[in-house]
Amino acid sequence: MPDTPSDTFPVTQRSRIRRAHQRGSYVRDDVYAVIDASPLCHVGYAIDGEPYVTPTIHWREGDVLYWHGSAASRFLESVVGARACVTCSMMDGYVMARSAFSHSVNYRSAMAFGVAELVDDPDHAADALRRFVEGLFPGRWNSLRPMTRQELKATSVLKMTIEEAAVKVRDAPPGDPQEADVPVWAGVIPMETRMGAPVPAPELPKETPFPEELARLIASGRLR
Amino acid sequence: MPDTPSDTFPVTQRSRIRRAHQRGSYVRDDVYAVIDASPLCHVGYAIDGEPYVTPTIHWREGDVLYWHGSAASRFLESVVGARACVTCSMMDGYVMARSAFSHSVNYRSAMAFGVAELVDDPDHAADALRRFVEGLFPGRWNSLRPMTRQELKATSVLKMTIEEAAVKVRDAPPGDPQEADVPVWAGVIPMETRMGAPVPAPELPKETPFPEELARLIASGRLR
């Protein structure tokens, strides 16, 4: 792709298809920012021409997205080798305008395309899972009871190299300031997702300290 | 479907495919509860065998899901008549266990299957849009500048009759109480999405009151 600067994903029919009339970006860092901020993603597959959309927790290393599931899942098995569309979306607010037509939402959404592959090397899979947990909760992996071979065997790690991707963001007041004479409230009702006060497991020994790293994560307002 | 009680969706290969080893429900009211609580959905289509997953705001009337978009969107145009999978997911918390394997998330997710259709009768489309706005923000429609014929023409309303659907919910402490002797904090870090303080549009006349219905909605903690 000699005409595509390396800091953007290629612009194709596939990644462009839903972006008519909308501001978007193919810049890798813009795409990554949304993927990395989103606590979950929705993975879409077409199996025998039927669409399936499943939510899951993803993680990313460079251009590679990872997710995982039960090795016993016939569904995960059936998607290995299939084309996938991974979409990460966060809703940031309702945009209340003067006309129904100008109502909107503020949001961030990234859409990435590629092929779902199984990470079949157990060492690679184990390492990916460790980076998944550490990426979410720094310091946690080493505090846990070590993963057993059995557990690793029961877990399928999937990955998808991002071939194409686009991000769309709306972060603005209502788009109809010219209608300010309509006597109705207009503006944005922000929407925010936060982590709340931790709820200890019922059987947790009372003296067990809450990890500082988790406390910092919660306080930061980030979701991962 | 004489053997299917009318309060559940049919259990098929399609709706069952990802539910191995997981608690789920096909009960209509359970499915509706998740669909109706979720501020957005992800719609998946397969176009020429390629999966696409796009976020949007949905609304529901009985077994019919609605969403909308720009009539100029080649994407929306291309999905009319296509099979669709609409998934609504809310993440309710991180479940922190003693092993990486037992880490999980609390969540609610509904997955519905059907065929995307265009609402091509303009009166039906206008009425659906009114019910969309009123469903989100009771009382708002009549306070707005009326929708023009032009605006209605520029809006495509899509609908999908739910043929099959399933819902999955996890709402529980960590699943490994037998490992309580592992010296690490275990429990749930709840995640909650809330609406925040409204931000008036810059040009909004200062004396414009904030609608009581919206204030009540924000205070209720519901997201729609």
UniProtKB/TrEMBL annotation, chains A, B:
SUPFAM superfamilies for the chain: FMN-binding split barrel
Taxonomy, superkingdom: Bacteria
Protein name: Pyridoxamine 5'-phosphate oxidase family protein
